[in-house]
Amino acid sequence: MRYLLILLGLGVVSATCTAAEPEAGSSPAPISNVSRSEEPAADGKPAAQFTTDAKWETAGYNNDEIVYTILVTSHDSRIIRCTTSLQGSYYENGQKQTVSDRQLSTVFPDQQVQVGNWMGMDQQSGATYSVHCHAI
Asked: How do residues 23-82 score in pLDDT, each as one tens digit?
């Protein structure tokens, strides 16, 4: 009897996880990047040189958690300080909620930094991020 209850429980968990997955053929909404380098500083130093990238990944014990990651790569010979802003959404109790976050990071010359990981966001709704950097 105990084994029957365990199998029944596993079947319910499996059905629940399968129902939460995106429909076959559905693709994530595009990621909007509105990043830019700051204008040259008042002291005449050139603007910081960097690139950004963002991606949706799956993680977790069963690879069933959606994780949104933003990366900043420095192409500058100076240390740069970056401010990353994120806008997205997630569902809580069937209601769509917005998420907004801001992160500060320091990127050393010719290095890449993972600014953050955001879990539970709605991949089909997409996300918008911006990164603004200046040399320090």
From this structure: 434 444 556 666 655 556 556 778 888 999 888 888 877 777 888 888 999 999 999 999
User: Would you call 103 exposed, middle or buried from its count of C-beta atoms within 10 A (0-12, 13-18, 19+)?
Assistant: middle
| CA-to-CA dists, residue 100 to 42, 88, 97, angstroms | 30, 7, 10
Residue 53 is part of which domain span?
Answer: 31-135
Q: For the chain, how long is the longest CA-to-CA vector?
A: 78
- Could you give the number of structural domains in the chain? 1
Question: Which CATH number goes with the domain that contains 62?
Answer: 2.60.40
- pTM, whole model, 2 decimals? 0.66
